[in-house]
Amino acid sequence: MSFFAASVLHKFLIFVFLLGLLSARASSVKLNAVVIQSALGIVIGFLMSLYMPTSLLARVSVSLLEACVLAAMVLTLLLPKVLSMLCGLWQVVLLALAGFTFFSQPYLSLITNASVLNTELILNCAALIFGVGILVSCQLCSYRMAKLHSTLAFTFGLLILLVLGMASSGELLLAMMKLHVVDLTKLRLSYASKTINFTDLLSYIPIAFMLLFSLYYRFKFVAPLRTPLKDLQGIAYRQALARYYQQRRLLRLTLCTLIIAVVSLLYWDLVASKPATLSASTVVELGSDNEIHLNIKDLNLGNGKLYRFAWVASDGKVIRFFVINRYQDRVKLGVVFDACLLCGDAGYIQSGNQVICLACGVHIFIPSIGKAGGCNPIPMTFSQDATEVRISRASLMKGYQYFSQIMEIEVIDPVSKATLLNTKASSQFKYQDKTWFFANDDNYERFRADPSKYIEHVSNNAGDK
Questions:
Q1: Is 277 inside a domain boundary?
Q2: Do 265 and 288 fall into the same domain?
Q3: Minimal CA–CA distance to 315: which of 202, 227, 428?
Q4: Which helix (H) or strand (E) holds 259?
Q5: Which end of the chain is more exposed for a tag (fewer CB within 10 A), N or C?
Q6: What pLDDT is recorded for position 459?
Q7: Strands 307-312 and 291-295: what pairing?
Q8: What is the pLDDT at residue 262?
Q9: What pLDDT, in 10s, does the model give residues 79-103?
Q10: What is the DSSP letter of 344?
């Protein structure tokens, strides 16, 4: 699911559902007029996003305009019959507001990174067309169903206007507090933050309403048409069957629209929009020779994929590094710290034939892995033969300063021989390139006075592994 399709649904869906309910109350609706009005509204929204200032005062003005529009919409819904001209006016106004919020998004410039027609542009435009198709189907379904039950449509319309009013009031209140028009209080700030955060869920409200509509429609209009079919024959049977098929098609179209819309939105919100995360690291330990040994064949290190490892120092500091084969035609490994001199220890992920820095998004060509400079991973010293990669403890400790993660591990107080957690230790002391932890300050002072008296009696669990 593309950002562009999901963004179209998020910004427009609740408005087109409301327009469908409103159109059902109009004396007449012409398709050509609706298309022209929709295009005009979107163009106006686009021009507003281009020329309207981005100041807080402009934001307050837009919020006040939205409040006036919503209040006028309530009055329109209360009318027993809506004039076609008035309905067309709301088509333009609501889509202009939705278009303004859509085109004001800074990420729209990512629709293409080139000035020529390319695959990325085609896919993003296709996503926009897909989103528009869902919107058209949604407005059509809400219009057809609202025609069948005006009271239910009226109730849903008022509820949607209430929700939109709450969301708009939160943004208006926040802008007014920033401008010092109203005093900043804990209650007002809490209300503004909750209503603004709630706007991310606005697109799901019309989907829920249309689902309720569909359930009502299924049992009220579709099911009763099927029951008498077995008692009819001839022309009456065919006419009744045609009516049943017609109502069932509308129900199926609505359900298909709902399923596609909710799956698209959920996939974007829960999966596609989430930032990339580091894959799990394989924890490795030092051998008897104070080196880490990575078997190339057993770990399949030559297949061109990024393999992440982690070594835990004596104080619990996690030092990450990764191994990747830099060339496809031969095994020539790059072994580097999973950190950058510029961006810190956010780490790297692999995407195709490139490695990406999670902190800044820079794409790094895989054959350049192992070279210092820029946003490249920090190189580390290692040795390699035909069967394995060897990394010494001294090489690992050179990357100690680049990482911040501390793992909770069990350590031994060298004085009392008690087992404790490194994060719960009273104090710690670095001696002979190892960190020693103490249960209390008295043990710490005794160790500092004569470290050699205690170290020879301590097992390897107190130091690096």
A1: no
A2: no
A3: 428
A4: helix 234-267
A5: C
A6: 46
A7: unpaired
A8: 93
A9: 777 667 788 888 999 999 999 999 9
A10: B
Domain range for residue 182? 3-272
Same domain, 176 and 75: yes
> Average of pLDDT values for 375-394?
92
Number of Cβ within 10 Å of residue 193's Cβ equals 12
- The DSSP secondary structure of 448-460, one letter per residue, reads HH-THHHHTT--G
CA-based nearest residue to 319, from 303, 335, 304: 335
Instruction: Summarize pLDDT for 323-351 with one digit per residue, the tens.
Output: 999 988 888 899 999 999 888 999 999 98
Cα dihedral 244/247/251/254 (nearest 10): 150
- pTM reported for the whole predicted model: 0.74
Both structure tokens of 92: 């333009």
Q: Are strands 307-312 and 318-325 parallel, antiparallel or unpaired?
A: antiparallel
Q: Are residues 290 and 417 in the same domain?
A: no
CA distance 44 to 37: 11
Structure tokens at 402: 């680049």
**Cα 452 to chain centroid, rounded:** 54
- Chain centroid to Cα 280, Å, comes to 20
What pLDDT shows up at residue 1? 57
